[in-house]
């Protein structure tokens, strides 16, 4: 796992980071295609982020055979550097927007999935009806924004790399 300091939920550019997370997490992501499909180095690969009242975490993760740790670590860091320098492609951004908005629309169909974020948003000072702005705010993200964010987050600040291995045999 390679972790970076993320943003808080009040950051105006948080949706750009959410779209990078989405674009980096599915079976069609550049990380999945290169590291798992082309190189055969990982079982799974993706991204995760946590936003809250204070800046959270953005991390890329993968699972691999212990024998492949060094080459997979190199490949993951290379792909992160590439994302930082080139940003998302138009296709990645479009796919991520559709998926993020679609997931939100589906989640808002059940009372508990609807009520919980409304209550939290009200407590956080965003307003209970903040959910109404998500689609508009996500659609407003342009290709320029996600290409700036990877540079600020993944190139211009340090990261933490964590590796979990099976116990060594005694």
Quick description:
The chain has 7 helices and 4 strands. With 170 residues, it is α+β, with helices and mostly antiparallel strands. The model has no long low-confidence stretch (mean pLDDT 91).
Give an overview in words:
The structure is a single chain. This protein has about 170 residues and is an alpha+beta fold. The chain has helices at about 15-25, 30-40, 70-85, 90-105, 110-125, 135-140, 145-155; strands at about 1-5, 45-50, 55-65, 160. Helix content is about 50%, strand content about 10%. Strands 2-3-1-4 form a 4-stranded antiparallel β-sheet. Helix 1 (about 15-25) crosses helix 4, helix 1 packs across helix 7 (about 145-155) and helix 2 (about 30-40) runs antiparallel to helix 3 (about 70-85). The protein is globular.
Structural topology:
Layout: E1 2-5, H1 14-23, H2 30-38, E2 44-50, E3 57-63, H3 69-86, H4 90-107, H5 111-123, H6 134-139, H7 144-155, E4 160-161
Antiparallel strand pairs: 1-3, 1-4, 2-3
The radius of gyration is 17 Å
Chain-averaged pLDDT: 91
Q: Which shape, going by the Cα principal axes?
A: globular
Run of helices and strands: EHHEEHHHHHE
Q: Major beta sheet, specifics?
A: 4 strands, antiparallel
| Strand content bin | 5-15%
Tally of individual helices: 7
Helix content: 40-55%
Oligomer state of the chains in this structure: single chain
Q: How are strands sequenced across the largest beta sheet?
A: 2-3-1-4
Kindly name the structural category: alpha+beta
Ends apart, CA distance between termini: 26 Å
